[in-house]
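Mods, move this if it's the wrong board.
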Amino acid sequence: MAGLEQHGDGGHRRRVVLFSLPFHGHLNPMLKLAALLHARGLGVTVLHTCFNAPDPARHPELAFVPIHETLPDEATSPDSDILRKLLALNAACEAAFRAALASLLRGGRRDVACAVVDGQCYAAMGAAGELGVPALALRTDSAAAFRNMLAGPQLRDAGYVPIKEEQLDEPVPGLEPLRVRDLIRVDGRDTDEHCSFVASVAGAVRASVSGIVINTFEAIEAAELAKIQRELSLPAFAVGPLHLLLGQPPPVEQSLHEPDRGCLAWLDARPPRSVLYVSLGSLARVDRGAFEEMAWGLAGSGVPFLWVVRPGSVAGGAAGAGAGAAADEAPPLPDGFEEEVRDRGKIVKWAPQREVLAHAAIGAFWTHCGWNSTLESICEGVPMLVQPCFADQMVTARYVTHEWGVGLEVGEEVVERGMVAKAVREAMAGGGGARMRERAHRLQMQASAAATSSAMDGLVRFILSL
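Not the wrong board. Structure tokens:
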């Protein structure tokens, strides 16, 4: 296995082994961390699945080793929900990860300082520990979301899970400002299955992990980070925002979709802060009804917009495109919509998001509140409209709107065109939007300051001490 390494150095530096979930929002933070560790003198080997494998040519300084997993349909199908994917990936990757890591250890056990494992890969955390390799968990969500996951078993014991309609607006003691409706969940999934996954993650962290690495920064989550360290008696390293630490210009990112760079020229022709950017990320899906309400809400707002309509982003989205619709086709838009917005709307399958958010024409970001998207918006000082779809996005949306005050809800639980139009106009041109923009600018300054901190150096010192 060690002979399969590509583009790696052959020296005898202490080496870190990294393993990520094979999704855009997990791979990119892991690869950024890998590059930063390498820049600080560590050897880096990236173990990865063959499914959605990273491109070694984009990261010539790193070594890449495939684990040669065999994945069931639940892990790869666009029709399976995130919980089903996570459970299937953990089950299918455990043995393959263990074998790949064991092979590396046989090739030079003293060189491997630790394994940095995706924080949702409880099976890999346990396997690293069983092989005698210290494991660090990389959380690609927020510190607040991680605290919610750690509290999962206690929340069930206290009667907050399964979530009950009559409790939705109750505050959750110890997890303020979260209400019951903001707790991590995947709608439509069996409660026992969800609780089992959360308990597995929390249990693996408590039993197998030597430290936590979180892509966040102290200025926005100092209290949450302190609570994590107290609850786990483990160091928690806030090393974000990772994309700022890497500097400019932005490095080439791993992407599962080819970005349409023509949208940047379209933005160039627009006035400053006049365009709403809309994207629900690389995994989130909405039903056809919500998609149509989004579309007509945008039309009714009168605001110029750039909308990412990703293939697979609408459940049953290809239905109107014919039975032979290709998997890479975007879902069909409502009849008459394109004519209605022709002069002020641009629709793409994927966008170079960091460059879009940094563009002067962008006035606000309608987001699913994935943590990478949220951090990128904060780092550019862009206020948000929030439409969380599942899991940690619920937690992040609450912090964006009520803790940091840089976002508005598109609609709580239900997306309706009239509410959408009203929220868009308020964010772009209303008094609430102006106040959010001021607060977003302050957070932007704090994020920039965090990118020059010594948090990453502290992590490297800890790794070398293991």
